[in-house]
Write a structure and sequence with these properties.
The chain is mainly β. Among the domains are: about 140 residues, Immunoglobulin-like; about 60 residues, no CATH class. It starts with 14 loop residues before the first strand and ends with a strand.
Length: about 375
């Protein structure tokens, strides 16, 4: 019958059990961390104990095999077994040589017959239970269970938020122990399934400050609550799109934002398009002379009209027309002339003496063809 020194022996032939060393040895060396983790860091616990008989005599002499079973629980007694998967009674038997009472084991070393340890050691409640047999048949439980404690290096590693460098998918993870396929800082899960879903992706649950430049070779997506609060300029791809939150102005092709919306492209093709569908749209551009060109199409050779619904259209000199708005809508107000084919034109004529007004049609030589005079009946 094997028992601890502190237990009341059931028989006179009892073994005493002392734990000499018990440390966690997944200690990471900073300069080697990246390369080591790529290969998969084994979680192995280095354990050393000592066996004596009831009189305190060391067992094993110069070297005798004893048979052991090990398990990790979440409490000093009772509780839930956390490792290995099989109950300790039916778990693998590990043969260890005991020399002058001392034995050593690397718990979790699969090459020594142990099941790999998958625990994340995110709690202080881990206790090792050891069972031992002289013949490998009947095992006695050594009590009390030994609490797993950390070495100084492991304590230092606990300063990493969350406690996990790599998750089960082999990607960096800080702040949550639930395995994800992507790297992440924080405990939140992604809301962009299909975009953030691989080991090359990174999720940041909270704020992110970047004091230098950031380059995007893919898509930049803003969620429903995405915003830019600080006054400053967002410039995408060398003025392709410029957003100035300080002046509340937007530019396409220019960073010289003098108006709310600025479009700049030195070409005599449409610079701006409004579409109903991909084939039904209207567009306009400004040419090198400063003229506005309008065009419209429905994609089938019909339509393409420019309308002013329930409105008046003014053609004026200067920045404002010298006439008041008509009483009804649907008018074309021309302050000077209406030209046909740049040859014939209608123009209002004002008699400087009588102040009477008439409308005269002129030919290409500016000779009057006929005149409409409200003073003459």
């Amino acid at each position: 019958m094997l028992k601890l020194l502190l237990m009341r022996p059931k028989k006179s032939n009892v073994l005493k059990f002392f734990v000499a060393i018990f440390i966690v040895v997944f200690v990471f060396y900073t300069y080697q961390f990246v390369n080591i983790t790529n290969a998969g860091v084994p979680k192995i616990l280095s354990f050393q104990g000592r066996l004596t008989d009831a009189s305190g005599n060391l067992l094993g002499s110069s070297g005798t095999n004893f048979y052991f079973k090990f398990a990790i629980f979440d409490s000093l007694s009772g509780g839930t077994q956390l490792w290995p998967t099989d109950p300790i009674a039916s778990s693998a038997t590990i043969t260890l040589k005991v020399t002058q009472g001392v034995f050593n084991a690397l718990l979790g070393d699969t090459t020594a017959g142990f099941e790999a340890i998958s625990l994340d050691f995110d709690s202080t409640n881990y206790y090792l239970e050891v069972r031992v047999s002289e013949l490998g048949s009947t095992f006695d439980t050594l009590t009390p269970r030994q609490r797993i404690v950390a070495s100084g290096f492991a304590v230092n590693a606990d300063t990493v938020h969350g406690g996990r460098f790599l998750n089960a998918s082999g990607v960096g993870q800080f702040g949550d122990l639930a395995t994800a396929a992507f790297s992440r800082f924080g405990a939140a899960d992604t809301t962009h399934t299909g975009t953030i879903d691989s080991s090359d992706d990174l999720l940041v649950s909270g704020g992110l400050e970047v004091n230098g430049s950031v380059a995007f070779d893919g898509t930049l997506t803003f969620g429903g609550t995405g915003s830019h609060s600080a006054a400053g300029e967002w410039n995408f791809d060398s003025n392709t799109l410029v957003i100035d939150s300080g002046t509340n102005r937007v530019g396409v092709g220019t960073s010289g934002l003098t108006r709310k919306f600025n479009v700049l492209e030195e070409v005599s093709v449409a610079q701006f398009r409004l579409g109903y569908t991909d084939s039904i749209y209207s567009e306009f551009y400004i040419d090198g002379s400063g003229d506005i060109h309008l065009s419209a199409t429905n994609g089938a050779g019909a339509g393409g009209n420019i309308r002013g619904d329930d409105a008046n259209i003014f053609a004026c000199i200067g920045t404002a027309c010298g006439v008041s708005d008509p009483a009804e809508k649907g008018n074309v107000i021309v302050e000077t002339s209406v030209l046909f084919g740049n040859t014939f034109r209608f123009k209002q004529n004002v008699d400087e003496v009588t102040a009477s007004k008439s409308v005269i049609m002129y030919d290409s030589a500016t000779d009057p063809i006929f005149e409409f005079d409200e003073e003459q009946q």
